[in-house]
Amino acid sequence: MSPDAGWLGLLKTAILFATTGTARNAVGVMLCVFYGLAALAGARLLRRSSRISPWLARRILQVVAGGWVIIAFYWIALWPAMWFAPLLLMYVNYRARRHPWMKPLLADGENEEPPLGTLWPALVLALLFWWPGYQFILISGVLVQTTARGTAAIVGRYWGHQRFRDRELRNRTFEGIAGMAVASLLLLFAVIYGFAQIPGVWFGPWSFFGALLATAVATVTQLYTPQPYDRWAVPLLTALTVHYYSSAGFHF
């Protein structure tokens, strides 16, 4: 046997080990953490290499920050293993907030949301729903919390003209609220249609109506929940709405 064949066999064995069983879950956790670090690095490089403001760099980071849950869906199967992904990303958040390398992204002040978003809701949802057939519920909550809310902030800041004040006298725009609703609807429809595995339903209309219901809950929650509680309320109530809809027997 040639040396090349021996190395090839070892490589195949290593790949098989890394993609099966407990090792696969560990690799999945590491990939989630790597994704978070890559998102931070990308936002930092974007800030340095262009003329965008720290605020916009932070919002772009918020839009992409929730993508780690997609990696988790494909790589992490064990319920306890899923706890480590948000916990380690919390540590990444903690270090990022205090590292000089991240200061250009933290110009908005210490009251801003952590760079990768508030991850406690993701941990709570992982404890509740990271079971076969239920993972899409967590994905729904996290993506609305990050991508939809980040999109709403960008739309409201740059294209918002119809302004109003909410009950806490915060400046809002109708365009920003519409951006939140559209982004949530598209994300939730894609998640429910693509990740939910529920037999006996006419999946297109069923997914759309579920996404529409959860979008209404997410948008109203974002509009009326005081800060900083909206960071918790939006993902948790969105996920619970998707869970209720998917388990209540609304079949077509």
State the main characteristics.
about 250 residues, mainly alpha, two-stranded antiparallel ribbon, about 70% helix
Q: Overview of this structure, please?
A:
The chain has 252 residues and is an all-alpha fold. It folds into two domains: 16-117, no CATH class; 120-252, no CATH class. It has helices at 3-18, 21-49, 54-65, 68-75, 79-98, 120-129, 135-159, 174-195, 203-224, 230-247; strands at residues 163-165, 171-173. Strands 1-2 form a two-stranded antiparallel ribbon. Helix 5 packs antiparallel against helix 6. The longest helix has 29 residues, at 21-49. It is globular, with a radius of gyration of 20 Å. The chain starts with a helix and ends in a 5-residue tail after the last helix.
Strand content: under 5%
Helicity level, as a percent range? over 70%
Radius of gyration: 20 Å
Q: Count of helices? A: 10
The tally of structural domains comes to: 2
